[in-house]
Amino acid sequence: MNDAATENDIPAHLTASARDYASLLKPRVMSLSIFTAMVGMVVAPGPVPSWGLAVLSVIAIALGAGASAALNMWWDSDIDGRMARTAARPIPTGKVPAAEAFGLGIVLSALSVWLLALSGGYLAAGLLAVTIGFYVVVYSMLLKRRTPQNIVIGGAAGALPPVVGYAAVTGAAPLEAWLLFALIFIWTPPHFWALSLLKKGDYEAAGIPMLPNVKGDAVTREEIFRYSVALVVLAPMLAVAPLAGWLYAAAAIILGAEFLRRAYLLRRSPDNTGAGGLFGFSIFYLFALFLVLLIEHWAGFHG
């Protein structure tokens, strides 16, 4: 009995596990950043100068993504506790103090940029620094709580990893690399707005002005459809650039048709039926397109 009482008296943050600290880095979001950055490295022209340096570059980009997440959780810890989707995160539950999350984010930010400067060059390191700063300062601090366009503008941070990867291999960031950026940038609004239709109550409780809460469901569904049209038009255009080949073009057309079909059905649904399906499919859509790009270049189907 005394032992149990003693355990209950221990501050929560003193019993935090490695998993709690790892969750600060948002592993699922980090994995998408890592994957798109790797694809950016692979599709870059010419051979990879050194696979050892390439691995270090991927690690640096992963650390940068984790740093962004930790700093985002530090800044958003007050509203995370008011949202069912985020209430179990380590800071709202008291498992990890906000100050420790902030310190972890700052250390990882500096480490990631320094490591990428050594392995991938100054341009890639600079782009990574911009990515971290844009996500934390521009999106989290300036946009998220002020405008329903938070996802549109803030999506630039999530779209930068393939450009960082491309620059880490070539030392340059030409138009081809920015087409990869554009693909993710245009994908982001319909992806997150579909989720926001499902989580309106959460965002309302937290005071976050997501599009459904500010403009209503009908406007949100219309905007999802418009961005979906732009996305399915843009995606096959990568095959016109030196980035992709016929396999990617076919995948972009087929997957795009399904994406647009789901967006159209959601547009016509007054009760938001299909929002969850579109959200889930959007994740598969982006992963599949980048996977096909990877397969094309590794298997020699490109060009």
Give an account of the 3D structure:
The protein has 303 residues and is mostly helical. It has two domains: 10-173, Tetracycline Repressor, domain 2; 174-303, Four Helix Bundle (Hemerythrin (Met), subunit A). Helices cover 75% and strands 0% of the residues. The protein contains 15 helices and no strands. Helix 3 (27-43) runs parallel beside helix 9 (161-170) and helix 10 packs antiparallel against helix 15. Mean pLDDT is 91; it is low at 1-10. InterPro entries: Protohaem_IX_farnesylTrfase, UbiA_prenyltransferase, UbiA_prenylTrfase_CS, UbiA_sf. Converts heme B (protoheme IX) to heme O by substitution of the vinyl group on carbon 2 of heme B porphyrin ring with a hydroxyethyl farnesyl side group. The chain crosses the membrane at residues 29-48, 54-75, 96-116, 122-142, 163-187, 224-257, 278-299. Keywords: Cell membrane, Heme biosynthesis, Membrane, Transferase, Transmembrane, Transmembrane helix. Belongs to the UbiA prenyltransferase family. Protoheme IX farnesyltransferase subfamily.
Short key terms for the protein model shown above:
303 residues, mainly alpha, Tetracycline Repressor, domain 2, 15 helices, 75% helix, Protoheme IX farnesyltransferase, transmembrane, transferase
CATH architecture of the largest domain: Orthogonal Bundle
pLDDT < 50 runs, ≥5 residues? 1-10
CATH topology (fold) name of the largest domain: Tetracycline Repressor, domain 2
Radius of gyration: 20 Å
- Based on helices, strands and strand pairing, what is the structural class? mainly alpha
Profile the largest sheet. none
Number of helices: 15
Q: What's the helical proportion of residues?
A: over 70%
Write the element-wise H/E pattern from the N-terminal end onward.
HHHHHHHHHHHHHHH
Strand content: under 5%
Termini separation (Å)? 71 Å
Average pLDDT works out at 91
CATH class of the largest domain: Mainly Alpha
β-strand number: 0
Overall outline: flat
The CATH homologous superfamily of the largest domain is named: UbiA prenyltransferase
Whole-number tally of structural domains: 2
